[in-house]
Amino acid sequence: MKKITNALNYFKLCGIFMLFLTQQSFAQQQVSGKVTDSEGIPTPGVNVVEKGTSNGVVTDFEGTFNIEVSEPDAVLQFSFMGYQTQEVSVQGRNVINVEMSTDMGALEEVVLIGYGAQSRETVTGAISTVNADDFNSGMINDPMTLISGKVAGLSTSNPSADPNATADFSLRGPATISGNSQPLIVIDGVPGGDLQTIAPSNIASIDVLKDASAAAIYGSRATAGVIIVTTKKGVPGEVRVNYSSYISTDVVSNEYDVLDADQYVALGEEYGFTVDDAGANTDWFDEVTRTPISHVHNLSVSGGNEKTTYYAGVNYQNFQGIDLISERENLNGTFKLNTTAIQDKLNFSFMLTNSHDNRDFANYGSLAQSLKMNPTYPVKNPDGTWYQRPDIQYGLQWNPVASMYTNTNNSKESRLLGNVKVDYNILSGLNASISYSLIKNSFLSGSYSSREDFFQQQEGVGGQASRSQDHTTSNIVEATLAYTTSIAEDHNLDFLAGYSYQNTFNEGFSAGNNSFNTDAFLYYNLGAGGALNNFTPNFNRSGVFVGSYGSERTLAAFFGRIIYDYKKKYLLNISARREGASVLGRDNKWDTFSGVSAGWIISKEDFLHDNETIQYLKLRGGYGITGNQESLSPYQSLATMGPYFGGSHNAYIGNPGEGSWVQPYGPIINPNPQLQWETKKELNLGIDFALFENGWLSGSMDYYNRKIENLVGNYTAQVPSQILPEIFANAGSMKNEGFELALNAQLFDNDNFKWSTDFVGSYNKNEIISVTSNQFQGSAHDITRVTEGVSIQRLAPGQPVAAFYGRVFAGFTEEGDWLFENSEGDAVVASEIGEDDFRYLGNSIPKYSLGLTNNFRVGNFDASVLIRSALGYNAVNGKRMFHENLSYYSRQNLFESVLDEPIQNSPLFSSYYIEDGGYVKLDNLTIGYTLPMENNRYIKNIRVYMTGTNLITVTDFSGNDPELGINYYPSDPESEVSNGPSVEPYYDYYPVTSSFTFGINANF
Fold first, then answer.
1. Statement to judge: residues 62 and 143 lie in one domain
2. Where are the beta strands (DSSP E) in 192-255?
3. Does residue 27 share a domain with residue 58?
4. pLDDT digits (tens, 9 = 90+) for 461-497
5. Domain containing 93: what range?
6. In the record, which residues are listed under signal peptide (predicted)?
7. How far apart are CA 170 and CA 176, in angstroms?
8. Residue 766 · residue 780 · CB < 8 Å
9. Per residue, what are the HEC states of 169-206?
């Protein structure tokens, strides 16, 4: 893999430059001292800054500090979260001791609510916050893994050991049946960002807006919820340098047991099969895998003064896959600047993040192929060439090791996120802001199958190459006006009005060619292939194509919000958003989304004020309406024209023998001017509480009921009133209903031992209510196939999304034939089973999601344990259908289980292959030690740690990993195979691993 050296050097120079800018010259006035709280306990981490400069230090673990000031009459500022800021004049003294006073207002946790913030105490919606101190650690190649198992209602399916995989996640169940059910991502206030743009080490906190009343301010993109990511920023004081790094490796934790050579030969002889014994004893899975080594490095520099703060960070990641080829190399740079002027009335902020990805992909079919290969075949011939059966009879036995080395697949991707924002304090309490954001993603990929590749030799087309690129640019302009006031001290009001505009343009190009006479060019010279220039009839044009595309979409909105409270006791939040989208039909481009929520802090009432058990108690409820247009592509509401492909559609122009074939064009999409938003209506009822002395047991409970209407899909159209037999339209509805519970317990909290426990749990029931409307008629239809012609999941009324569907297994005949149960309950052979006998066999989406985290600290040692679970669903191991079937002996290797329960008939999907997918995992175990650095002038602290992830899985599922994805992503209905949630396909495989990480974090 090519290293990204130029960009790395650039960021190194930026870091050196920032260090240079922040150097200060000091006189020799030395001041030292100790900072304590009101009880005399030392207070570490307090910022001690010489007023009016960037000169500053931070108190150590004993609360002591040492600083050189520029003059004897300098003023020192002491500040720390939860305490009042104090200013102390030096007056020529060399020793100053300070006692910090508690600031009750600052102790209130601040929650981001979209275009603003609010204290946790007065929040009326369902919002969860996870701060950096509570993030998961270990090998993190996807930011969502940081909060896996930390948020009630957020279901995550962590990425596999594939370094190029990303986490799959959803909030409170499926949000649509036509597209992405993942929540809207907002990064530092910029909606529509990509989590892969930012380095996990740069994230300071993640807020999750779960219910519609909380998310309605984001309108048509908030149906699946909103995840607000806040990245780190500079703080006034001395220059702070942080370096962190870790190295990690993976070990396969669940390997399939396939037959070895002796077992394979003996089984064939026992059942009278023709045994193809090549004499070797090859562990094919071992041949296509390795022990990967991954490493990550983070460097950040931050600081500033009262007027200006800055933060600059560089992150480098190199992740290797368990297979021989796959690898991801990422370089990320971030710079943030914040400055004030005009007597602090004007605030200017700037943020720029740029991420570059280089990825190498293995032929993932090779991993699945390693399970199928005849174990008596060698990897190479005696002369060093790849071993391969040349006859087509053994076409299913292609050499997976050779395939990995004779195929090249890689990509380069650049992601840029930039934001400029200006805030101005017009009057006391009245603030205006305007911001411009740019999101720019560029993707370039290439693939080449060499002339030595088995399939290229079978096709007889020489080498085959392809190249594709995709560019997306989003321009976002947002402006807000906010006013905060109090009336008679008891009535507090916050007003917000705003405007948002986003334009997104996407374009791309792709081409492929074959018949290369040399492998030297790879995919860098597509014109060197012979197929594009060969017009001979019936010439093999496999993989030969040229295509390009371009599309544009626009979103505009006006929004507002009113937040009111009386004595911080009775709470009200009202928000609305009027939004228009270009992708919708001309009759429905605009709609209004809104939310209202209220709360009552009962613990502030006189009858509970002195209650020793109930320290805090708040009831809240909300109702909101949000929309969804993300599942629609541009122009799907219009009569779109396009080329007709295929021989039956080509047109011959001219006299016989004298004319030519031309490409005809015609309508490819029916127009639908009534195409409109999918709409979610959600009720949320919740309670927040803190119990016992100091509120050591706290938490929240929520009930929600959400109904999603006007589901977008491809429905049958009336012809001839329509040109084509299908149309994109709104028809159908579904619902999600559930409960959530979050608990935090501070079990022990003293100088010698600390122990805290966090538990999150959720239950969700999903159901499709209807797939029809007054105008368009839908029906239950298959969505998932494990192999060609074998359907196993459906979308159907009265069932959850992607419910399993098929025959009911009733046993075997004495001859070993399948028996299935018919609609009358009788056991009959397969030939007597019809479609009417098929039944719904199970739910593919977990009903219960649980997370339990325990944090410990003993002296300088710390430990964290995360147990994560998903229960109440079924899963299918598609490999069993073929690897446990003797009829496939001559085509592939089999699982060892076939020795105990051999199935001799052709595989037929039924409840026989439906398994319990529930699992409990020891998902993350971290042990750390912080080195004492009280007397070190240059190093504030160093922490070393070890982390193990995915260490133990308790499950009845027989497959690779029960975490098989939780969202249904529609695929091309013409596809021979497609994936639904909780299905491990026969044709694809990436082994599950346990990872072990050693890391270090140093602050200077």
1. no
2. 203-209, 226-231, 237-252
3. yes
4. 888 999 999 999 999 999 999 999 989 888 999 999 9
5. 5-104
6. 1-27
7. 11
8. no
9. EEECCCCCCCCCCCCEEEECCEECCCHHHCCHHHEEEE
Tens-place pLDDT, residues 895-932: 998 888 788 888 888 999 999 999 999 999 999 999 88
Q: Please name the residue that has the structure tokens 């959803």.
A: 170
pLDDT at residue 650 greater than cutoff 60: no
Structure tokens at 701: 């409970």
Tell me, what CATH number does 152's domain have? 2.170.130.10
Question: How much is the average pLDDT of 983-999?
Answer: 87
Choose one of 173, 203, 237: the last residue of a domain: 237
Contact between 814 and 827 (Cβ < 8 Å): no
**Does residue 81 sit in the same domain as residue 126?**
no
| Helix then strand then coil, % of the chain, to nearest 5 | 10, 50, 40
* Token reading at 421: 């924002």
Which residue reads 């699982």 in tokens? 895
The tally of domains found in the chain comes to: 2
Domain stop point among 214, 237, 260: 237
The answer to the question of residue 360 being in a domain is no
Sort strands 827-829 and 839-842 into parallel, antiparallel or unpaired: unpaired
Q: Is position 757 within any domain?
A: no
The residue with tokens 């002796």 is 262
Closest CA to 194 of 7, 355, 315: 355
Indicate if 210 and 126 belong to the same structural domain: yes
Q: Check whether residue 116 and residue 192 sit in a common domain.
A: yes
| Same domain assignment for residues 13 and 74 | yes
Copy the structure tokens of residue 162: 């594939």
Report, in angstroms and rounded to the nearest whole number, the Rg of the chain calculated over CA atoms. Answer: 31
Q: In this structure, are 62 and 112 located in the same domain?
A: no
pLDDT in tens, 765-778: 999 998 876 555 55
How far, in Å, CA of 278 to CA of 769, rounded? 57
Do residues 187 and 81 share a domain? no
First to last CA, the chain: 33
The whole-model pTM stands at 0.85
Domain annotation covers residue 528: no
Q: How far is CA 489 from the centre of its chain?
A: 44
Q: Where residue 66 falls among pLDDT bands split at 50, 70, 90? A: confident
Q: Per residue in 807-857, pLDDT tens?
A: 999 999 888 889 999 999 999 998 899 888 999 999 988 999 999 999 999
